[in-house]
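Q: Hi! New to this. If I give you a protein sequence and the SMILES for 2-acetamido-2-deoxy-beta-D-glucopyranose, can you show me the bound structure?
A: Yes, paste them in.
Q: Okay, here:
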Amino acid sequence: MASVFNLFSICFLSVHVVGSESKIALTSPRLKLSYQDLLTSNGLTTYRIERSCCYSTLLLDEERNRLFVGAKNFLASLNLDNISKHEPEIHWPAPVEWREECNWAGKDINSECMNFVKVLHPYNRTHLYACGTGAFHPICTYVEVGQRTAELQFRIDLSKTEDGKGKCPYDPKYRSASVLVGEELYSGVATDLMGRDFTIFRSLGHRNCLRTEQHDSRWLNEPKFVNVFWIPESNNPEDDKIYFFFRETAVESHGLGKVSYARIGQICRNDIGGQRSLVHKWTTFLKARLVCSVPGTDGSDTYFDELRDVFMLQTKEKRNPLIYAVFSTSSAVFKGSAVCMYTMNDIRRAFLGPFAHKQGPNYQWIPYQGKVPYPRPGTCPSKTFGTLESTKEFPDDVLQFARNHPLMYNPVYPVNQRPILIQTNADYTFTQIAVDRVPAADGQYDVMFIGTDIGTVLKVIVVPRERWHHTEALLLEELQVFKNSTPVTNLELSSKRQQLYIGSDLGVSQLPLHRCSSYGKACAECCLARDPYCAWDGSSCTRYLHNTKRRFRRQDIRNGDPNTLCSGEPHKVRVLERKLYGVEGSSVFLECVPKSLQAKVIWTYQKPKTTQREELKTDEHILKTERGVLLRNIQRKDAGAYLCHAMEHGFTQTLLRYSIEVINSWQVKELTRKDGPNDPRYASQKIWYQDFLQLVDHPNLNTVDEICEQVWKRKNQQPKQRPVPPPLPAKAKPDKWKHLPTFTKARNRRMHEISRSDRAPRSAAIW
Ligand SMILES: *[C@@H]1O[C@H](CO)[C@@H](O)[C@H](O)[C@H]1NC(C)=O
Ligand SMILES: *[C@@H]1O[C@H](CO)[C@@H](O)[C@H](O)[C@H]1NC(C)=O
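A: Thanks. Here is the predicted structure of the protein with 2-acetamido-2-deoxy-beta-D-glucopyranose bound:
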């Protein structure tokens, strides 16, 4: 019932949201690049290890210029400039005994009973801290990496390993999250083999380990941990907090069945547990719901509740980063994704608001209205907010209240109370996000790189529209970064190196953040791309650098209007000219696919020896398709120029000009009479077709007669016994088109038919 309802409101979603205010629904990408495109000409590099998989753990180390990778049974240290360079790896398998035990416990020896590296953090100046599942026997170790780039090392001492329980999951399928702060590890993880005891756990360092209340569904209820960050609260480090992002089965969704909610949880870094109660447990743990929803027309909201990933974008104020979160819907019927943005002010406000309270099993959840004990639960003991020195001094009523009220009544709403973008009609869902703040000529933009479950990365920006708070999401690029469809499991972004590192089960990919030259060679194309990384420098589309003194930089992200931006710019792109010959009565296909998938294609026609153009009208004789125009049964009157124009954002650009000449069918007959239908080598006409096709558009030949003469001569010089090549398949591309860019490739599909007696339906022969 709920899902049908969900689906129903989604149908109205785009209408409502796209309407007057904001365009938050993603449209088709402007530029789509395949894996091959990226590999051959756009700087994609890849990395994988033989006999490994599952590169889910990436650690970016700008200082050492390294990308550390955790995979199945391996650790790798890659060069940030080029991850494809051959680099040493560390083989770190699980011991044989553990693998056998794992197998006895009913797990698969080859897929599950392996050491999947899930934790990788900088530990001190010379070491990293790494943990793996160790065949359902979590294990951790220190990785020596050297102090500086000059003294790079990469080794582990397998005799010095530690128990990984509470730091790393047992099951490679389980998600966990952790952060290492001052030699202490904060992790959200399942701490048992069966994956039933979930905890937020602090380990390492010199203090006692701390955890959440065990088996208390009010604290954690089947959580899936997504990410965790250390964020200062004030200038006083005593107030520092650790924020956990997860999703879990909601306790408060009374009557709606088993519903998943997204959560943010907080704990104080200086929490050391209670004295008489909550001993070795968090005394400052609080959690709130993270809402990401869109209003439907009927007043009901559509919720995106499956939190997938969270990115923390640092701002000038260390205590106020922006939180970007990726969600999908939990409905089985409807597939949708969203990105919501949250501020720390809104998050802190929720934790300062009312506590959620439930009198007894048959009561509703309500805001707690009684007196909240002092110091208010969730406050770190510090001189900023009180006089207590440690959580061990908290009075019993505070601990009692904290144990019973971990949930806040008010949820955290996103900025502007709605997502900044949604995707509701795609065959993929979002899985990961990384954000780069980019200064541009007309302001700064947060460029989002969103990983999907089909191995693509989307590059998206949000631009302000005319009115306050109204925005428009633009999908600049859709990039296939893995050879096969596979979920993106990790994204790391280096602003310094302008590179993106992408992890998946299949491998690691590295891609520059921008490919300005791929947008085209004209000012208008560069402008229409609306990519904050790129600008028109007077001769090409190149990287925009904000603080350089170069004056001649044209960029207009907000409006993307080439009519104003590029006026006075010489229109450098030469319109590609193509000459085609068609035999009367045959069909000709004029291909034209603009680079931008958002451009609308318009065709015009110009009679020979005139300058007037008119829009090409479709009828049973002229067919418009997605890739071009098909002229069927062409006649002499169809000769002339056919121009393909791309219209985008109010700007029109001519891409191609086809000049068509029509040859009389009797001319063709003349040429083939000697071989006529009675000739035993009748099939050799096919050779003639091929020769003809190869000569069409030959730069040195101008008239049909010349072509035909040459073909005829060549044909007569050929040895008579030459085997007959198979007929040209309708979709074959003769090599001669190879030098043309993809979008100009015009295929003249069997444009002439010699045998007039062949009455097969012509359309069937072509398609
Ligand atoms: C990266 O390194 C590989 C192997 O050394 C090399 O083949 C490739 O050309 C390099 N790629 C780039 C973009 O430098
Ligand atoms: C870093 O930690 C490792 C493991 O505890 C230790 O062996 C090493 O001496 C430490 N390095 C520094 C510079 O403190």
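A: Residues 516-565 form a domain with the ligand-binding face of the semaphorins, domain 2 fold (CATH 3.30.1680.10). Let me know if you'd like me to explain how to read the tokens.
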